[in-house]
Amino acid sequence: MFKNLLRIGVNLSLLNTTYVLCKSIKDEKLPHYHFLNEQDLNKLLKKHQNLSIIDRSYTEHILSIIRDVETDTVEFRKNSDRLIRILIEQAISQIEKKKHIKQSPLGYYDAHEVKFEDEEICFVSILRSGNAFLFEGLKAVSGASIGQILIQRNEDTALPSYLFQKLPANIRDQQVILMDPMLATGNSATLALRILKNQGVKQENITFLTLVSCEQGIEKLFREFPKMKIITAQVDPILLKDFNYLAPGIGNFGDRYFGTVKKSQQLVQQQ
Amino acid sequence: MFKNLTKLACCLGLVNGAFVVCSQNVHSQDRLQHYNFLSENELHNLLKKHENLSILNRNQTEHILSLMREANTDIVSFRKNADRLIRILMEQALAQLQKKNSVKQSPLGFYTANEVKFSDEEICIVSILRSGNAFLNEGLRVIQGASIGQILIQRNEETSMPKYFFEKLPENIHEQQIILVDPMLGTGGSASMALKILQNYGVKEENIMFLTLVSCEQGLSKVFKEHPNIKIITAQVDPILIKEINYLAPGIGDFGDRYFGTVKKHTRGLQV
C-alpha cells in the first residue's frame, strides 16, 4: 500500500509541474507593452500643433479598467462613458467663444460663451463604434444634430469600405465633431473626412475625437488634413502590422461596448 | 384753433419730459455694478500661496459658468449646466486620488495599469445640506458605490454665522477618503464647521478633498488656515465677497434656490 501511495504522490507532482510549466509558457507568449513616456508625448505634441492629449491623471485609471480583458460589459460601458464625457467637454472648451456682458443676481459680469448654438454643432459618428459617443454627447449638447457614416473594414485587405451616410443638409455651415473610439491606420477616419470635405465642410471646423490612437494614424490624418483638430485620451505605442490593431489597445471597442462578442472569445478572435 | 394746438403740444412736451426724467431716475436706482474677474496673475499668486488649491482650467468652465450666473437662465438650463460642471469637478477629484500600479492583461498583451487605490465603498461623499446635495446626482454616476454622509448647516440670516442642525455620517468614516461638497465658498464659515465635525469623527485632513463651484480668496484663506492639509478644488474664484450680505459677486445668486427651484425667477434679483 505504501508503494501505491508513493506512486500516486509522484504522479500528482508530475502532473502539477507540467501544469505550471504549460501555464507559464502560455502566459509568457503575450508581450508586455510599455506606454509612451512624457518626452515621447511632448515630442508628438510639438510636432502636431492641432493635437491635444488629455492629461494622464484624468484618463489612466479609467483606461486601465477599459483595457482589462476581465472587465465586464457594465463596467466597460460605464467607464467608456466617463472617458467619452471628458473628451466631449474638452472638445467644447476648444470651440470658438464670444464675449458679452450679462447680469447675475448681484451685478454685471463678462460672459464668455460658446459662439455657436446647440443646433450649429453636429456630431458625426463613424458607425458602428462611433455611436457609443452619442449617449454622452447628447447629454452635454442636447440640441446637437447627428450625422452618421457607415464605414466597415474589409476583413482580408484591412482597407475601409464606405457603405452609407446620413448627414444634415446644411453640414457645411456647422461645427463638426467627428467620433471614432480607435485611431489605428487612420484609413477609416480619412475616408470619413473626405466625405465631409465633399459636402463642403471646412477643415478648421472639424474636431476628431478618439479614445486610443497611435502615431501612424495621427500622422496620416494630419498629412492630408493639417487644419483639423484631434483630441485623444491616450496614444498607444504600437500598431500591430498583421492585424492593424493597437497594442496594448482595448481590443475591439464596438464588440465590447455593444456586447456582441462573449468575453471568452475575445482573446481568440484576434481580428 | 392754433392756440389750442400749441397748448396741446406744450402739455404733451411737458408730459414727455417728465416721463424721460422719471425713467432715468428709476434706472439710476438699479444701476448695478460691473464685476471684473481675477486676472491670470492674481490666480497664479493664489495658487502659489496655497499649494493644496486647484482651480479648474478657465477654458473648461467659463462658458458653463456664464450660463449659470445669468439671472435669466431658467431652471432646466441651470440644472443641466450645474450638472456638467459638477461632473468636471468630480473627475478632477478622482484624478487627484492616490493611485496604485499593477500589471493587467488587455486582449493583446500585458500593460501597466494605474488605478485609483480605493474601491468605491472606501470613498465617502459628504454633502453640506441643502445645496451640497446637488452634487450627489453626478457624484453617484461617477462613483456608484460611494457612501454618502450628510451635515445640515444653515446660515443665520442676520448674523451670517453658520448654525449646525444635524448630521448622519458612516460609522467607519475615519477610515474613508472624504469628498466634501458645497457649491459656494463665501466666508468659509459653513465649510469650517463641517470640517471640524469631520475631525471630531477622527477623519484625517489629508484624506479630505473639498469641492466647490465658486469661491473667494477670504473663504479659501480661512479654510486653509484652520485646515492646511486638506485639498480644495474650485471651478472659479470670484473677486469680491460683499460684506453686508456675505454673498459672492458676481456670484451665482442663491445656488440652492436656483437648483432646487424654491424661489421664483422674478424675485431672485430682489432677494439678497
UniProtKB/TrEMBL annotation, chain A:
Q: Name one GO cellular component term.
A: cytoplasm
| Enzyme Commission number(s) | 2.4.2.9
Pfam families per UniProt: UPRTase
Q: In which pathway does it act?
A: Pyrimidine metabolism; UMP biosynthesis via salvage pathway; UMP from uracil: step 1/1
Return the broad EC class: transferase
Q: Gene3D superfamilies under this entry?
A: 3.40.50.2020
Essential cofactor(s): Mg(2+)
**Gene Ontology molecular-function annotations:** GTP binding; uracil phosphoribosyltransferase activity
Extract the CDD domains matched here: PRTases_typeI (cd06223)
For this entry, the protein name equals uracil phosphoribosyltransferase
UniProtKB/TrEMBL annotation, chain B:
Please verify whether the record's keywords include Glycosyltransferase.
yes
Give the protein name, as stated in the record.
uracil phosphoribosyltransferase
Q: Where are the transmembrane segments?
A: none
Return the EC number: 2.4.2.9
Q: Which UniProt keywords apply?
A: Allosteric enzyme, Glycosyltransferase, GTP-binding, Nucleotide-binding, Signal, Transferase
GO CC field? cytoplasm
InterPro entries, from UniProt? PRTase-like, PRTase_dom
User: What region holds the Phosphoribosyltransferase domain?
Assistant: 56-262
- Annotated GO MF terms: GTP binding; uracil phosphoribosyltransferase activity
- Which pathway or pathways does this protein act in? Pyrimidine metabolism; UMP biosynthesis via salvage pathway; UMP from uracil: step 1/1
The leader peptide range reads: 1-17
> Which family is this protein grouped under?
Belongs to the UPRTase family.
The cofactors it requires, by name, are: Mg(2+)
Gene Ontology BP annotations: pyrimidine-containing compound salvage
Q: What class of enzyme is it?
A: transferase
